[in-house]
Amino acid sequence: MTTKSKTSLTFQLGGQLEINRMGYGGMQLTGEGVFGEAADRDNAKKVLQAAVADGVNFIDTAEAYGPKLNESLIADALYPYKPGLVIATKGGFNRPGPGQWIPNGKPDFIRENIEGSLKRLRVDTIDLWQLHRFDPNVPVEETLAPVVDAVKAGKIRFVGLSEVNVAQIEQAEKILPIVSVQNLYNLGNRQWEDVLDYTVSRNMAFIPWFPLASGPESMADKIDRIAASHKATTAQIALAWLLKRADNILLIPGTRSLAHLLENLKAAEIDLSDEEFEELSR
To answer: Which PANTHER family does UniProt cross-reference here (predicted)?
Structure first.
């Protein structure tokens, strides 16, 4: 595993949109099981506003969060949007109840997701629309057909994928350009290493979900030691490692807490040495 010594804190999404690599994920600003409204909606709005005030210009949400309610919350908190703020959303999941996630790649459902997201986010163009999952029951060519139409109509600027392997990315790329991949990846779970390397080679953004996980108990001692040397928390070290792992990684840690939000954002100030990075990577 290799890394550059100097960590860049911005990334050009699609070669056009300059993103601060420390972003924010809105999933936690919902009810239990990512269903229903946030328990404290006023606090949720304050967290979003504080994130943007502190330099976050990339916020990740989805039609499925709530469902629908997270997108509306973001608009209520942040509209009219600060120039340069990029809001990424996703579509392709049915949500019959808390904790229930059923892929739905039917074209009519995807088209409905896109139109609904435009209205709830109060935008004419979605900066980044991501397919939440490939539906095993629907050919991806059919799933992405309304996405192609939305791009041509100017309703979607860029398209990404979520929880995909390299073959699936290549399959989608035959249909339309792909600028980002959002997969489970963190210091303790690197099952998608090949996908990350593929995105690096293609200059696509890689957006790890669940980025705060710091790994198994066997890693605790060295993480604690490195955290202590930086006067940082374990979570901050986990985020700093991701920032150093590859310059195309965009981080979207989510939280309901203003204090944790500020703590997460300060992870961008931690400059791990090459030796510390390699030690954590083993």
So the answer is: AFLATOXIN B1 ALDEHYDE REDUCTASE (PTHR43625), ALDO-KETO REDUCTASE YAKC [NADP(+)] (PTHR43625:SF40)
Instruction: Using CB atoms within 10 Å of the CB of residue 2, give its burial: 0 to 12 exposed, 13 to 18 middle, 19+ buried.
Output: exposed
Instruction: Specify the DSSP element, H or E, that contains 153.
Output: none
pTM: 0.96
Q: Identify the CA nearest to 49 among candidates 84, 20, 76, 18.
A: 76
Nearest to 139 by CA among 150, 151, 131: 131
Residue 272, H or E segment: none
Residue 243 φ/ψ, nearest 5 degrees = -60, -35
Nearest to 210 by CA among 191, 229, 231, 233: 191
With CA atoms as reference, report the closest residue to 78 among 58, 49, 46.
49
Tokens of 256: 């309901």
User: Residue holding tokens 């890394």?
Assistant: 3
Arch. (CATH architecture) of 10-281 = Alpha-Beta Barrel (3.20)
- Do the beta carbons of residue 18 and residue 25 sit within 8 Å? no
Residues noted as catalytic:
65
pLDDT tens digit sequence for 70-103: 999 999 999 999 999 999 999 999 999 999 999 9
Q: For residue 50, which of 77, 29, 11, 27 has the smallest C-alpha distance? A: 77
Please state, in angstroms and rounded to a whole number, the distance separating the CA atoms of residues 31 and 12.
33
Band the pLDDT of 113: cuts 50, 70, 90.
very high
CA distance readout (Å), 98 to 34, 35, 159, 214? 6, 5, 27, 26
pLDDT higher than threshold 90 for residue 3: no
Instruction: Give the DSSP letter of residue 79.
Output: P
What is the torsion angle, in degrees rounded to the nearest 10, for the CA atoms of residue 141, residue 144, residue 149 and residue 152?
A: -100
Q: Which residue has the tokens 């209205």?
A: 119
